[in-house]
Each structure stands twice: as structure tokens, then as C-alpha cells.
Amino acid sequence: MTDLDLLHFEQLKKDVQAQYLEQHTPSFEDISKWKGIDIIYFQEDLRKKAKGNISEKSFYTYFKTSPVTKLPRIDMLNLLSIYTGYESWYEFKKQHLFAGELLTEDENLTEDEIKELEKTVSTSPNLLQEVLSPEKTEFKSPENIDLQKSNTDNQIINKNTEISQPSAFEIQKTKKNFFKKNAWAIITSILILITGVLGFKDAIFQKTYTYCFTDADRAVSVMNTIEIKVIKENESPILYKIKPGECFRYSTKDKNLKLRITAPFYEDLEVNRNLENAPEEEMIELKPDDYKMAANYFSIKDANGNPELLKQKRKQLDNLISNNAIIYQVYDNATYGIETLDKQKYITLVTTPTTSLKNLSVIEMKREKGKIVSIKFKIANTDENNK
Description:
The chain is of the alpha+beta class.
């Protein structure tokens, strides 16, 4: 990589910005000031024209800083060059040569390929010399080894032994000596046994309780991911995530159990149980949250590009959301963690057909007096990370 390559990349960024401005009107003309919905629309245009995509993280890395000190990967450079109307990054540089600059076809090679080629060239003379003058290996006949053999005569020894029966006194004495010598070992074993019982008494005496979840209106299993927080006095809550359709199993020796249950499209629920007389298996009903379901239903996900249906859904969302609603979009990257949107920008976002919309999920929603007053949402980043 040379300094000229970095200058060429700055040229390419300007061409990308100009290409996008031909048919779009972002919040700012300067591409380094784009954020949020502007980046989403740019990614959509890139997929449409160049059949590829760059992640939000890469956008912040290479477009928010000018000039850059590090060149992107060649696949990203080729993708952006195609977007601006060139066949490749090489062709783009070829059409934007600086005074005295020369390009060679070798520039299409990656750094790893160039290093491998240099390694092969540097070792080739040694390989040729080895082929023309192979080393000769001499084989020497093994020297004679004298082996000494020794014969061992078998000797038969006859030994007379007298067998006598132990007396009762000797047997009793042997038992006393045994207990005396092994007293500490016996006491230690008993202590280990007691310690083991005390250490595992929680596992021995605790019981397992099973809670399953059903929709209160339709009497079917809840097919959403459920989050359960186990609340204990003077302790931080313990969070469990239950997959759709599965039950929650919790083992404890406590006499009381407190749970806080949340699920998309359902109202939050707090459960308190006295476990002294509670059943080991229980079905808990979750009440659907009409506002969460409505916000999801009114989005573009099921509009199928119908203009009249889109217009109707925008009107329904406008009636559902308060004019003073506080709306946050949460991002994965650390550079730009959260963004505030007004009501109309949010409605435009969730009712505009883009492939990114299918990854939209509502994190939190609050309502007052029949209106939604707060929304926190996130668009999951599923693009491949650029290294």
C-alpha cells in the first residue's frame, strides 16, 4: 500500500458520495456526516446497484474519518468501484492516475500472494542446485558385534517350614494394633463423609419447579423468546432466556420465589409463589400487549408494497403514537451507540420497504392514556464483518 492508494481512496469516496446524491437526498451532502437512516438507505442502494454490501462498522471506520490511514480490503474497494461505474478498483485507479504514476497488473495481487511469490523466487536457486547436485549418502556395513552368552544353572533349594496356629491372645492383640494404627484414617474418613453431606445438602434437599407459558387470549403456547428475572432479597437479579415454546425449570430450596417475566408482544408480569404449598408444575398465562402487537402489525413487514395499505398503516401509526413520543434507535457499534428520532422519522423508517427492516425489533415500549409515549428499537446488524 502506498500514499497514492490512500489518495485514490479519498477520490473514490467522493465519487461514491456523488453517485448517491444523483438520486437521493440525505440529511447532509457530506458523506462523513451521514448516520442512522441515511446509512441504511445507502446500504440498500449499494445492494441494488453493486450486488453487495458493507457493514455499518466499516462505514464508520472508512467514511467518518478523512483522510484515512488504512486502506479497506480489496473486495470492499472493488465493490465501491463497481458502484461508481468502474469494473474494479484497478480500473478506477487507472482512470484517475496522478502525474508520474504507473500502474502494473501486479497491483491486482493481494499482499499475501505477493509475499508468497517473493518467497518462491528467493528459494528457487537452492531448489535448482539440489536437483542438479543431489547429495550422496554412503552406507557402511555394520560392524560385527560380539555377543556373550551366559548360562545360569538352576538351583533347587529345599527349605523346611513350620506352620503354627496363632493363639487367641495374639488375635486380640492384632485387632487392637490395627485400630490403633488406623484410628486417624477412620476419623478422617468420617469427617470427609460429614463434610460431603453438608456441602451437598442444598442439592439433596432442593426441589425443581417447572413453569410453562400460554397465551391468555388464544390458549396456545407462547411462541416468543421469554426473559425471566429471578429476584432474591439482597442479591442482583438472575436473568434466564427461554426459547419459544419451552418451559422454565428452576431448582431451589428457598420457601419463596419471585419472578419478573417479559416477552415481545405481551404485558410484563410479576409472579410471587410460596413454595411450601406450591405445585411443582404450573401453567402461567401471559396477556397480549395490544400496543406492542399493533406497532409490529402496522409496520411494513406485511404490506407487500401495496401503496394503499402503506398509506393506511402510516395513518394508523400516526394515531397510535403520541406527538411528543421519545423514540430511540440503539446501535451495535461503540462509535455511535444511540440516536433519537422524532415521530414522523420513525413512521417513515418502519413503513419504507428495505431489506434491513426485517431485522427491526422493539426493545421497549411504554404507553400512557392510550398513546405510545416511548419506543426503544434496534435493527440487528447481520452483514459480514470486514476485517
